[in-house]
Model the fold of this input.
Amino acid sequence: MAVDLVVKNCTVVTTEGRTPDSGIAVEDGTIVAVGRSDRLPDADRTLDGAGNVLVPGIVDAHIHNREPGLEYKEDWETATRAAAAGGVTTVVGMPNTEPVIDRPERLAVKFDRGEASAYVDFQSFVVVTSENRERIPALDEAGALGYKIFLGSTVGDVPPPTDGEILEAMNAIRKTGKRLGFHEENGEIIDYYERQFREAGQNRPIDHAHSRPVIAEREAIERMITFAEETGAKIHMYHVSSGSGAEAVGRGKARGVDVTAETTPHYLWFTEDVLTEKGNVARIQPPIRDEREQARLWKALEDGAIDSIATDHAPHTDEEKKVDDPFGNTWEAISGFVGLETEVPVMLTFVDQGKLSLEEWVYHHATRPAQIWGMYPQKGSLRIGTDADFAIVDPDREWTLTDRNELHSKTRVTPFEGETFTGKAVSTVVRGEVVYDDGEITGEPGYGSRVDVD
Done:
């Protein structure tokens, strides 16, 4: 009897190691066999891996898909189309939409929109503010993956709770068993320095970065770790941009606090010099740091202070990013850029450069984020009986992103335009369905499904 799909002639890579001339068999959307190509069963469809590398599907647990309310920038369909083209099989949307995702009925709308139009599997975070702490249990029951607090000003201007309210929220979230993440910048520090820079007429893109100093990130991390130590809550630090901040996470781990952290491909790839080279196109919050902080960030990744990789995929229009005047007044530009189709090429380039192994990349970009957010082993593994989510990547393909308009997002501003990579996603499979293959989107909108979590 034939299975639904067999993929052959790959090197299968997991966190445990790599197996050449191997593949995967899929039946009813789940993995039924992993092994040597010549020992796999017959199939209704066979995909030839052509000697490339097969890895668990990438889990990007930090994207802004902008739906509901801001669909002119991005929506579930376009964001997950980009994910499919990038080798990403699961995405998690952020809650700073219009309206913000702060109550069960709004979360239900976000889920329903995803079920109707997503190409890959998805989930969503919910926001915690001063106004909705009593809804924490209901949001848990409604199926939220986790919770988020914005500690400093960012896109959407979601006001942070007070420290007392954060402690109260942590105690409530601890009872759900889920994790609370932070946009970890001290709001008072960054607001103070932004006023100083504006009043002094310092309005270059690099001035925006310097108005949000590393101390704002590190202080916020250390304060939230102290709160978690007091309450026993599980916490997460999104988009850690600096080695100083990552080292603070490491100290919290050493004290026994259940704190995890992610960084992004752009913090590992660029230094702040990109702001003088590409201007407001590279403007993001927290900002891209200097070479010294980047070196310390890499060391923190190697030492385990940084757990996972995510993009903070943040689409904006050309007008919002001031693409036609990239070195104009930075205070008139907006922060963020797309990243779903460049994250795998960036990380594979680091593998090619010897900065991490294929196994380490899989751990940080698939296995570990799934573990952090309660989706493992259904996501982020290649175990028998789990979702047949995987990507085939060509680790040797050299290419340059010459035209950002080739990307699949609705808006496509990125500082990675013009960058050269070694490595690219060739095929993407979500629960046994080939949603991207050989440069073409082959899936259908609405195939993606909400990931159930306990």
Summary: The domain at 57-372 is CATH 3.20.20.140 (TIM Barrel).
